[in-house]
Amino acid sequence: MSVAFRREGDDEHMEPKFELPIPAGPNWVTVRGLRLTREKVAALEAVDCDAMAEEDAKKHKRVLRYWRTRLATAELRPVAAGDVVAFGCRVTYRLNGRDKMVAIVGDDEADPADGRISFSAPLARAIMDAAVGEMIDFAGKADAVEILAIALIDEE
């Protein structure tokens, strides 16, 4: 009989389970980001995996490995000077005639809906090192972003 018609079991045909992808580049964190990562690891470690179904336990352990890795590689960044846009700053800017505000934080702390973008996001990369009043090229448009204000993030 041909090997193509042989069926050993369903396990060999299942999709492989990979580790959660780690963002490329450094793992910069704010004080708040480091605290949130520690809290996440503690909460995940407190869960009893023995009471879970096997697949749920595997998924939980995969998530725990991700967060342990993120905690182990976390680089707490020094407080920015605040004179130019940098990691750990809250920036008010004008784009397409609308004033907006974002905080530049680490990858795991980023939440665009809450006004927090990763330092690796295209907008953050474009406005890094800009001063108040400076016009920045963005998304293929010259002078698309104007920096209106820079403040330090002062939250723990």
UniProtKB/TrEMBL annotation:
GO biological process: DNA-templated transcription elongation; regulation of DNA-templated transcription elongation
Alphabetical keyword list: Elongation factor, Protein biosynthesis
Domain Transcription elongation factor GreA/GreB C-terminal intervals: 82-150
Coiled coil: none
Endoplasmic reticulum listed as a keyword: no
GO molecular function: DNA binding; RNA polymerase binding; translation elongation factor activity
Top-rank lineage group of the source organism: Bacteria
Name of this protein: Transcription elongation factor GreB
Organism (species): Sphingobium indicum BiD32
